[in-house]
Amino acid sequence: MQFDYLIVGAGLYGAVFAHEMTKAGKTCCVIDRRDHIAGNIYTEKKNGINVHKYGAHIFHTSDREVWEYVQKFAQFNHYINCPVARYGSELYNLPFNMNTFSKMWNIQTPAQAMEIIERQRKEAAVENPSNLEEQALSLAGRDVYTKLIKGYTEKQWGRDCKELPAFIIKRLPFRFTFDNNYFNDPYQGIPVGGYTGIVEKLLEGIPVYTGVDFKKAVREVPVEDGNVFEWNGDTFAKVLYTGMIDEFFDDCYGPLEYRSLHFESEELPDVDNFQGNAVVNYTEREVPFTRIIEHKFFEFGKDSETGEPIKGTIITREYPATWEKGMEPYYPVNNEKNDAVYEKYRALAAEKKNVLFGGRLGLYKYFDMDKVIRASLDAVREELA
Ligand code: UDP
Question: What domain count does the chain have?
Fold first, then answer.
C-alpha cells in the first residue's frame, strides 16, 4: 500500500499531526520504538491512580485554540499546580511569591519583600543577565537563588548555573502576591483518567505499530521522481520524524546534548497521604532526586471513574541523569553550543523535502505540551496549504 505519511513517534506531536492529516483525507501510519503510544505523556492506571510514567505533566496554556482543541479529546479537571519546595527541614511555596518571601525572611508585606530583594539585587550587581545564575540573582536575590534555585538547577541540568541559558528560569513566575499557582496561563488542568486516552482518541482508526525502530526497520529508496520510504512492504511518500534530529542524520555534525531522567516508583498500600501534595521539589544539591510526585493528588486523591477516595498511594522520585546513547532523552540542552549544532542539522533537514521534523526531539526545543500541539497544528496547516 502507498501511504501519504509515515509518522515516527506516537507522542503528542505525531498524534496531533496524524489525526489532523487523516481528517484532511491523507493516509497515515504511525510507528514508535517504545512498546506503547503517547510518548512521555503516557499514564498508566494502577490501584485507581493514573501514574505519570515519565514524570509530572500538568497541562497549562494561554492559547485558547489549543485549550479548545484538547477539550475534544478529554475532560480536564480543575487541578492547579502549587508545588512545595523542601530545603533541608524548611518548606517553601513555589513559584517565588509572597508566601515564599514571608517564610524566607519572616516578613509580611510586599514592600518589605521588595526592599530585601532590591538590596540583594544591588549586592549581586548584575547589569545584563547572560546566564541562569545572573538571571536568577537579578530576579530574586541571593537567598532565593541559594536555597531554591542553585541546587535544584545544578542537579537537574548537571552543570553550573553560569553555564545555563537564562530562559530556563524565566519559565517560573515571580510575583509579589500570595499566589501559589505555578503557571500564569489562564487555562490549566489534568485530563480526567490520564493522558494516554487523549492520544488513543487522536489515533483512533489510524494504523499504529509500537516496538518499531525507524532506523532499523525503515529504508529510503529512490524512485523515478524522488525518494520514498519503505517499511513492511508499504511505501510512504513523506515522513514526519519526531525522534532525535541528530540521530536521524547519524550524528554527522556530532551529537547534541540531552538531559535524561531516572524514575523510582514506590507503591505504599498502607499510606493514604505521603506528602500532602502532588509535587514536592527537593532543592538541596545533596539530595540526589529533584522531586517526589504523589500521583493521586493530580486527581485530588480520588478514583476518576468511581469518585471514591483512593486507599494507599504511589510516589515517584525523579533523578536527573546524564544522557548517553540508548537512554531516554527528556530535555534538549538549549545552550549556545548545542543550538549552533542544531542549526546545522536544521539546515540539512530543510534540504530533505520528503521529511518533516517535529516535537521536542525533532526540533530540539524545550517545548511544553501546549506548544507541542500548537507547533503540530501549524505544521499541518503549512503542509496542507
Ligand atoms: N527550578 C528551580 N527550583 C525549583 C523548580 C525549578 O530552580 O524548585 C528551575 C530549574 O532550573 C528548572 C527550571 O526552573 O530547570 C524550570 O522548572 P520547571 O518546573 O518548569 O521544569 P520542568 O517541569 O519542565 O522540568
Answer: 2
